[in-house]
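In response to reviewer comment 3 from the previous cycle, which asked for concrete evidence that the modeling workflow produces usable outputs, we include below a single protein chain processed end to end. The sequence was submitted unchanged, and the resulting structure tokens are shown without manual editing.
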Amino acid sequence: MLKATADFIPIQCIQDGVNTIPEDWAFDPLRNGYAPNEVIEEGYNPSGITPTEYKILVLPDDIPEKTAGGILVPFYARDQRQGACQTGVVIDIADEAFSFIEGEGVRRPVIGERVAYTKYAGMLLRGKDAKHYKLMNDKDVAAVLDFPFDPKDYQF
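The workflow returned the following structure tokens.
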């Protein structure tokens, strides 16, 4: 079971009614929970991967290990589904990324936002924190999503 700490409250603890959110805390999409505002604003990149030129680094949404009925999904099936995943959180953006966008009213993704991107976009890399990240071109991003990740969207 997930537990809250002094600097992080998992979203499951809020949904279960176990914890309340302090006023100076906000949702942290990188860790799928709530953290102090100053921690979120730092833009911490735990992967050790820094994109260059027109690339962005995205942490794909996790694919559930079990089906809705509780059956464990084989690794190869989860891995295939993870490669086809089309949503995730922006971790880092290169300096030249999205430089082709001009004009007012045009939305650029920022670090910490959830985005939708093309299927099988970019390359899958393992970061120093042992998580898998996608390094992709800025033009592979199709939309900025204003709703949280729901694992039910990826049920087998």
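Residues 9-41 form one domain. We consider this sufficient to address the reviewer's concern, and the full set will be provided in the supplementary archive.
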